[in-house]
Amino acid sequence: MFNPSQKKIGILGGGQLGRMLIQSGIDFNLSIHVLDPDKQAPCKHIAKEFTQGSLTDFDAVYSFGKKLDIITIEIENVHTGALKKLEQEGKEVYPQPHIIETIQDKGLQKLFFQRNNIPTPDFFLIENKEQIHKYQDFFPFFQKLRKGGYDGKGVTKLSDAQHLEQAFDAPSVLERLVDFKTELSVVVSRNKKGEVKTFPAVACAFNPEANLVEFLFAPAPIPKKVEQKAQQLAIEIAEKLGIIGILAVELFVTKNNEVLVNELAPRPHNSGHHSIEANNTSQFEQHLRAILNLPLGDTALTSPAVMINLLGEKGYEGKAVYQGIEEVMKLSGTHIHLYGKETTKPFRKMGHVTLTATSLQEAEDKARKVKAALKVISE
Ligand SMILES: Nc1ncnc2c1ncn2[C@@H]1O[C@H](COP(=O)(O)OP(=O)(O)OP(=O)(O)O)[C@@H](O)[C@H]1O
Ligand SMILES: [Mg+2]
Q1: Is 133 strand, coil or helix?
Q2: Ligand 1 binding pocket includes 76 (Cβ within 6 Å)
Q3: What Cα–Cα distance (Å) separates residue 132 from each residue in 17, 108, 330?
Q4: Phi, psi for residue 220 in degrees, rounded to 5
Q5: Would you say 108 and 49 are in contact if contact means Cβ atoms under 8 Å apart?
Q6: Closest residue (by CA) to atom 22 of ligand 1?
Q7: Domains of the chain from N-terminus onward
Q8: Among residues of the chain, what percentage have pLDDT more than 70?
């Protein structure tokens, strides 16, 4: 027996990920509440109830959660102390707060990989910039802030010990540079019964200037062995964490087809957006199934797909308008998602487009056309 609308669900964060979760939840008649500091957040008009408040403030998170049955997140930077108290008081909090805490800190993530023999690039943990000098023999590095980074913002490449102007003077992970061939992402989900399912791996191509995903290819054009290894690692991580909900596992594939885990995100992820149109179950539906302890859906890809992020165009800031949208909509298999953000600025994630086609090449050709034609500019 199941009446989905009986459980009051809340999301910490009201951005595009929350918005797509709500869109999916409507199919199950779920009522979803949202907390976000921005009164114009993308979820504002589609949440059952929208509360404006800080996600890192104990009282704001605790009093929001108190009214609900199940609390989930669409961003990791939340007050886990408040979530732990809610959990102790019998609320269902997924992913579990201690897992959010581990993943919030890139240093703790690395230690988790190390403890569990999960292959990951070699690293050192440092407290400040001064300590970088101890590791002169191991350059080049990627330095990553332990906490608070997102979309590449807490990450910087350090090529040699003489050029540390870019370096952060804060607790961070010094990670040895991996000369990777491909970056992959595997989205995995686990419910309370312990059922685990992965989505097929996708390959991500980054825009080096923005440090954001530029193209995402599904299925990832990789050997079967690499696919299997990536799937197996994602399952192992989900099981070792004992996570309930969805988890994105970012991976590097080296030139020798070695698979290394880069980092985790315990929520729906940019690399799973194509699943709305290109898989039997979307990552958003899968997350809802997992947190409601329902059977997980079939994740098979139903069509090759390429996804592109719609980023705010350089040189424009203000009320957003979408140039070239009519032209793009004439192409078959074009699925446009606008996130409802009123104002644009350079590289802001304003939406995404998924292109489905009979082959990956055809989807990529269309994606390149869309990228050239569709621009987010200001009025
Ligand atoms: N050790 C490494 N060797 C080579 N490239 C790396 C390494 N670590 C990170 N990168 C590059 O930098 C990107 C961003 O790093 P990472 O995923 O750790 O940061 P992030 O800010 O959490 O990113 P996002 O929020 O976009 O996922 C990676 O996707 C990869 O392209
Ligand atoms: Mg990343």
Answers
A1: helix
A2: no
A3: 36, 19, 53
A4: -65, 130
A5: no
A6: 150
A7: 4-93 (3.40.50.20), 122-176 (3.30.1490.20), 180-378 (3.30.470.20)
A8: 99
- Give the pLDDT of residue 9: 98
Nearest ligand atom owner, CA of 105 = 1
Tokens, residue 240: 């070792």
Share the mean pLDDT of the chain: 96
Q: How far apart are CA 61 and CA 219, in angstroms?
A: 38
Residue 153 one-letter amino acid = K
pLDDT at 5 over 90: no
Q: CA Rg, the chain, in Å?
A: 20
User: What span, in angstroms and rounded, lies between the C-alpha atoms of 116 and 136?
Assistant: 28
**Token digits for 15?**
């951005």
Question: What distance in angstroms lies between residue 262's CA and the mean position of ligand 1's atoms?
Answer: 7
Tokens of 167: 């370096």
How many CB atoms sit inside 10 A of residue 373's CB? 14
What the block records as the tokens of 160 is 């040699």
Under 8 Å CB-to-CB from 148, ≥6 apart: which residues?
Answer: 77, 154
Cα–Cα distance, 260 to 161 (Å, whole number): 25
What is the rounded CA–CA span in Å between residue 186 and residue 124? 26
* CA atoms of 230 and 259, how far apart (whole Å): 7
Q: What is the model's pTM?
A: 0.97
User: Nearest Cα to 218, choosing from 311, 332, 308?
Assistant: 308
Positive or negative: CA dihedral 61, 67, 69, 70:
negative
Rounded CA gap, 127 and 192, in Å? 37
Average pLDDT over residues 252-270: 97
Distance from residue 135's CA to the centre of ligand 2 (Å) = 24
The C-alpha atoms of residue 379 and residue 242 are separated, in whole angstroms, by 48
Reported as a single tens digit per residue, the pLDDT across 116-130 is 999 999 999 999 999
pLDDT digits (tens, 9 = 90+) for 213-249: 789 999 999 999 999 999 999 999 999 999 999 999 9
Q: Which atom of ligand 1 is nearest to the CA of 141?
A: 1
